[in-house]
Write a structure and sequence with these properties.
alpha/beta; 5 strands; 5-stranded mixed sheet; single chain
Length: about 160
């Protein structure tokens, strides 16, 4: 994990030279001091971080055990934060999103810097129960529409 954190630091420093905002997508634990180090390297940037909240590559899929602490560490260091989700295609979307809401969003919502934006990451999974490849594109589209309806009810 130290090599990964060092990699993020190098990427962050490279980005700092040409952008006024710097964002990071993180998997795994990341300490407050590491966030502060990155922040000090980009003093004029508006830093934000997107932390993996739900992982589909493990068996069973579920909440990333490092997500809540990493989010808290980012906020303590002065970052704005959100989450990304690797949904498991083989599990009902509503049950996964309910778990994310209960375990991540509700505990974090009281923090004024945490805006509960959710990025959906749809990628091949090493967990065969979560793979998107076994479904037709049309079925995957319907599944994602269902996800959107859970997140933002359209109300007919």
């Amino acid at each position: 994990m130290k090599n990964f954190n060092l990699f993020l630091l190098v990427v962050g420093l490279l980005l700092c030279s040409s952008y006024s905002s710097v964002g990071f997508g993180l998997v795994g634990p990341f300490t407050t001091s590491a966030f502060k180090c990155l922040l000090s390297s980009v003093p004029d940037a508006a830093p934000f971080v997107i932390v993996r909240a739900y992982q589909n590559s493990h068996s069973p899929p579920g909440i990333d055990p490092n997500a809540l602490q990493t989010l808290n560490n980012a906020l303590t260091a002065g970052y704005s934060a959100g989450i990304y989700v690797e949904l498991c295609r083989g599990i009902d979307a509503a049950s996964q999103l309910k778990l994310i809401n209960t375990e991540i969003i509700l505990p974090m919502i009281t923090n004024a810097k945490f805006f509960p934006f959710i990025y959906l990451k749809v990628v091949p999974s090493s967990n065969p129960d979560c793979s998107w490849e076994g479904y037709t594109p049309s079925d995957n589209c319907k599944y994602l529409v269902g996800v959107a309806n859970v997140i933002y009810p359209l109300g007919n």
